[in-house]
Design a protein that fits this description.
single chain; about 325 residues; alpha/beta; Rossmann fold; 2 domains; seven-stranded parallel sheet; five-stranded parallel sheet; 11 helices
Length: about 325
């Protein structure tokens, strides 16, 4: 069996890829441009990718390819219909990064709510020492207990974030496709209007693209903390940037972007250095334990496929 990893650099240099060698011959490429894909996968039985786009044209030139394993839960970078037409199976890895993303979500919210980077800056700049008083308490921050924390998307990650929010004393409200009985479910407009904290954890679909738009931002509290841990295009990025610039929302955190990395002309370049903004480089999924877990599940997926199993197949 020939296995090719096309974008290993995006998966962390310490990910234990050597474990794949028990399955067959493995080739590693740190990065692969669109022009290089066809040549690199031409004789591969299995490819492992993260963000590489797999199109109809790519699959048309991959005569030996039997299985695509995405090192992620989302697989919107793969043309699933084209994979079906070419007889290529596709497997994802569900639920491997739940604790990692929930951790980073909570860390981002807590930092924005407490103005942590600003308070740290007072000490690093010497302003605290020069002030001559033992405490600096401006900008004002508030306890999360009693706040309303709105969660959009309520899969494994959304539920994990809800448990953290409840532990901090927040009231949790949820927006999801199918209402549930153990949490208060509301429509997206109600959630945007009532929440003090909003965290996004939904997949990118035609229905969720630009879900957080100009109109919904207008209905949010000016004190709201908004954090996107879903997909970049779930929010209207220009509208969010303008809302921060104009003081229409209090704070914004984001780990995902419609283009990754985002270019110099992206709306977020206008706000990325503002003290009430935390932009991070799509790292929330990638705690070492999560990456190790993901690789282990990919190995299980490959073994299952070549034993006529259907573990984590998303093309069926």
């Amino acid at each position: 069996m020939k296995i090719t990893v096309l974008d290993a650099a995006s998966l962390g240099i310490d990910t234990p890829f050597e474990r794949l060698r028990v399955l067959g011959a493995v080739r590693f490429f740190n990065e692969t441009s669109p022009a290089q894909i066809a040549e690199r996968i031409g004789d591969s039985d299995v490819i492992i990718i993260n963000k590489i786009k797999i199109t109809y044209e790519v699959l048309a030139n991959a005569g030996k390819l039997k299985l695509i394993c995405v090192f992620a839960t989302g697989y919107d970078n793969i043309d699933i219909q084209a994979a079906k037409e070419h007889g290529v199976a596709v497997c994802n890895v569900p639920a491997y990064s739940t604790d990692s993303v929930a951790l980073v979500t909570a860390a981002t919210v807590l930092s924005l709510v407490t103005h942590l980077s600003e308070y740290r800056g007072f000490v690093c700049s010497g302003a605290y020492q020069a002030a001559g008083v033992p405490n600096m308490l401006s900008p004002v921050y508030h306890e999360i207990r009693g706040m309303k924390w709105g969660i959009v998307g309520f899969g494994n990650i959304g539920r994990a974030v809800a448990r953290i929010a409840e532990a901090l004393g927040a009231e949790v409200i949820v927006n999801k496709r199918s209402p549930i009985s153990d949490y208060t479910c509301v429509d997206i407009d109600t959630l945007c209007k009532e929440s003090d904290i909003i965290t996004l954890h939904c997949p990118l679909t035609p229905e969720t693209r630009s879900l957080i738009n100009r109109e919904r931002i207008n209905n949010m509290k000016k004190s709201v903390v908004l954090v996107n841990e879903a997909r970049g295009a779930v929010v209207d990025e220009e509208a969010v940037a303008n809302a921060i610039i104009n003081g229409e929302i209090a704070a914004f955190g984001c780990d995902v972007y419609s283009t990754e990395p985002f270019p110099a002309n992206h709306p977020y370049t206008q706000i990325m250095n503002m003290p009430n903004v935390i932009l991070t480089p799509h790292f929330a999924w990638g705690a070492y334990e999560a990456r190790e877990r993901c690789l282990g599940i990919i190995i299980q997926n490959i073994k299952s496929f070549f034993s006529n199993g259907t573990l984590n197949r998303v093309d069926l």
